[in-house]
Amino acid sequence: KLPKPSRLIPLSERFPKARPEAVDLLQKMLRFNPHKRLTAAECLSHPYLSEYHDPDDEPTADTTFEWEFENSELTRDQIRNYMQVEANKVAALLQAQKAAAPSS
């Protein structure tokens, strides 16, 4: 079981030098619910990227890309299990990197 964080650190605190528009874009891109998350088109039209956005000079896809796994209704326990599996993979990778690092 994953421990609950004692306090969620707002992205504006985690990245204090970032522009507010950058933090806003990041928050909207990282929403857990895929239906509330920004689409690629919405990201491109976000104020933070406005100086780089040129609708006349951007490729478009012929079809919409679908992440099938986001359409499945997972239970809280299934989500928790998937997250634990991924966390274990990261922990094993970090442990292997630490073991391979030269001692000082």
From TrEMBL:
Superkingdom as given in the UniProt entry: Eukaryota
Record-linked InterPro entries: Kinase-like_dom_sf
Name by which UniProt lists this protein: Mitogen-activated protein kinase
Organism: Hemiselmis tepida
Phylogenetic lineage: Eukaryota, Cryptophyceae, Cryptomonadales, Hemiselmidaceae, Hemiselmis
